[in-house]
Each structure stands twice: as structure tokens, then as C-alpha cells.
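Project standup — Tuesday

K.O.: blocked on the structure for the chain from last sprint. Re-posting the sequence here as requested.
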Amino acid sequence: MRLVLRGITKRFGSVVANDSISLTVEPGEIHCLLGENGAGKSTLMNVLYGLYKADEGEIELDGVVQHFAGPGDAMAAGIGMVHQHFMLIPVFSVAENVMLGNESTGFAGTLDVEAARTRVTEISDRFGFHVSPDAIVEDLPVGVQQRVEIIKALSRDAELLVFDEPTAVLTPQETDELMDIMRQLREAGKAIVFITHKLREVREVADRITVVRHGKVVGEADPKASNAELASMMVGRPVELVVHKDAPSIGADAFVVKDLRVVDPAGVTQVDDLSFTIRAGEVLAVAGVQGNGQTELTEAILGLQDDVTGSITLDGVELVGRSTRKILDAGVGFIPEDRQVDGLVPNFTIAENLMLNRSFRSPFVKNGALRIGALRAFADQKLKEYDVRARDIDSLAGNLSGGNQQKVVVARELSRDLRLLVAAQPTRGVDVGSIEFIHKQVVATRDSGIPVLVVSTELDEVVALADRIMVLYRGRIVGIVPADTPREVLGLMMTGERPDDLKDVVA
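H.V.: unblocked you, prediction finished:
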């Protein structure tokens, strides 16, 4: 199937998400749509899939202009989409998920599950997916669940497959397996659109690369181009992709966690018997697939979890049982994983957001009155120091780009007198230029002698920032290893393999 998009424009109010985008995808081709988060890639594919209606432009499949009223029309035309967040029913079997929305019936109108089982087996055998039609989806590893999504699309005779940030929740090994699957699909003549911002993956599988920036196509790139060249096209300027840092100057044990256990409101243990130490001037980075206790760990440190047992001490002071305000006052800086929910108040100005956790004390408050001059001077300084791209300090935080919102959070947290920095997904959803800046700030914090805990699902980020790496799996520590541990070992540890069992891999 040959896809041609001509002049696709999509507006949301005054925001132009797609600005006259045109591209062509040929059969038997992996066409990568590369761009920063917020560049308009997913919006474009949602137009293609019938989830949005374009304001201008047209979609052509094999020479025929299409008018999709919804995803059902797109699927009927041979388009399949593998979403970043899987569209599966966890308690259903693979076969039941595959037939959902495309049910066939047998005698007396009963559902023909056997036909779905046969279809799953045929597709799985053809592409070597190794997926049982009777397996319950919630019992499957994330990588296998993604294969179910692909089988679901192929069962409807999709000739054009869209992969939207498909590796966001995968281990390195699962990512490699997905790359192999995409190559097999290409060899079978399928047309593939691969949406990503990860340069390593682009260079590995792309036949052609279209780069999108601020909703516009800025050009095509050669798959053999260097990471620096691709990053420069994405951002519009040269970007330093390597984190430069000296050997750490390690001090005494500063942050100590012992026998930590966190139970969620449903009674499920999310963090189970964690014990670790971070020394002054050290970055301990936590690796693992999202959903293995990382969020609950950081929230327990900040006093945001109710059912916590064990001990968390900072410079000998116990934090468990303290309120979040007292923990922040003890010198804990917190960059939350969701800046819009936990990091900012979107309807507050930049200046107001910069004083959020100090709105009741000096230098912003004196004798119960807000010192407007002190706040404005501080905010003006941080706007320049952290290169926050905004009209002025009175701009609403909610109107900033994701990268600039994150810079406001980082500026606020690092401008306090810190004794510990907890950075959860510090560069999630930000462009490579902002990633470069934030990484430098984290390293500078570590070099000032402050212990740093970084939590990230991006293995490249973990390796770049860490002095030691702690791998979590199902709420438990699989191992704590040096930062130079091979990626393939870290990937296997993220599936629960113990480092002592991986000596052959290291060798």
C-alpha cells in the first residue's frame, strides 16, 4: 500500500499542530517520522487513523483519496495503528482481544472464538511471534503484549502499520525484538510509519527519515546520518549529546533507605524490602520498565504515600512519618515524573510557580506579606539562568512548551539549599536541547557534593548520568551495579535476572 499525505494541516484553536505536512510512504518501506515531543508527529498519525479530521489537505491510499469518518474507516482501508499505550483488555485472552471490534459469529449468533484462535496462530507462526491465542493478556510481558497489538492489526489485513513511540515501555532486548519484527513486516511488503524521538532506533531500521519541527516538515535525513546531525535537524541548532562529567568526589553515606515497603490503597505491595545508600556527591540512577515500583519509591521519599514501613534517613534524620512540607524543608529537592500534575500549577505565572514550595518564608515573605520585588527579581534571574523561553515572568506556566515547563521545575528545585535531589523522569517529554541542559544541571548538583537519585525509563539517560545503577523489577532490587555495566546485562536485569546469573553475558 502506498500512502501519500498532501498538505495536512490540523489546528487546535490558535495552535497549529500540523502545518501543511506532506510525505509519501512506499510499500515495503520503514519510514521514520522523527521529531521532538510536541512536534506534531502523533497528531499527524491520528489524522491518518481517523481520530482527528484535518482542517486542510488530503490522504491518498494507492491513488485513491480517502475521507475517514473515524478509525473504523481507516482500518477498513488497511491501516493499522500500534499505540504507545496498548489498547487491550487485560482480563481477555489474546484471541478475544484480537477479535474485539471485529467479531465473527457462528451457529445461532454465538461468537466464533475458534476462528480468532486460528487467525492468531497463523499470524504468530508466519512472523515468529510465539504468542499463544489462549494466554491472558495481563499475564504477558509488555513486549509480548505489543506483539498482540501487531497481531490485532494484521488480523484485519492491514497493509500500512503505524508504530507510535512503540519502545517507550520496552526493555532493550524487547526493543531489539521489535526492530526485528518491523524488518519482517517490511520484507512482507507492509508499509510502516515509525514515530519516535530516539535516534538510536531511527538509525537502526529506517529506510527514509522525515524530520518534523514545530508542526512542519523541515526536511528528509539520510538513515546513515550521525546522531548529532539528526539532533540538529530536530532542534534547529547543534546539540551536545554526550554527558560530560568528571569522576565523582564521593563523600560519606548521606541518604540511607532500609527495609522500605510501600503498599497501595488496594493492598498491593508496590515496593518490597528496598535497602540502599547514596553517598554525598554521587548519582544513583534507578533503571527499570515503568510500573515496577519507581513511582511509589519516589513518592514514599517525599511523604506522598500513606502505607510506608521501614526507614528513610537523610544525614541521619528520619523522613518516614514526616509531612511532605517538612521533608522539603529538610532539603529534599523533587523533580516529579509528571510536571503538569505534581510539578506546576498551570494557571499560575512562572514567577508564582518558582516560589511554590517557599511561598511562606524568606526571601519572598516578610511579616506575613509577599515581597513582590524580591519575587520578581528572583524570577527574572532564573528565567535567564535556566534559559526559560517565555515572554516574561508573568506568562502562565500552562502556556509554555513541555521543555520550558520542565526548566521552571528544575530552576525552582535547584535554587533551594539542597541536601538531596530526587529527579523522577527528569527529561520526559522534552526536546533534545532541553535534555542537554537538564543533564548538565543534574551533574552540577552532584559535583557540588549533593546525593542525587535519578529515576528514568530511558536507559541511555540512566547510563549517562549514573555513578551506580540500581535495577528494580516488581518492586524489588534486582541488583546495584557500576555505571559501565553492559546495556545487554542491564536489559536482562530489567526482566528480573540477577547480575550473578549473567556472568556469561558479561564475558
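K.O.: great, moving the ticket to review. The longest strand covers residues 15-25. Residues 253-345+417-506 form a domain with the Rossmann fold fold (CATH 3.40.50.300).
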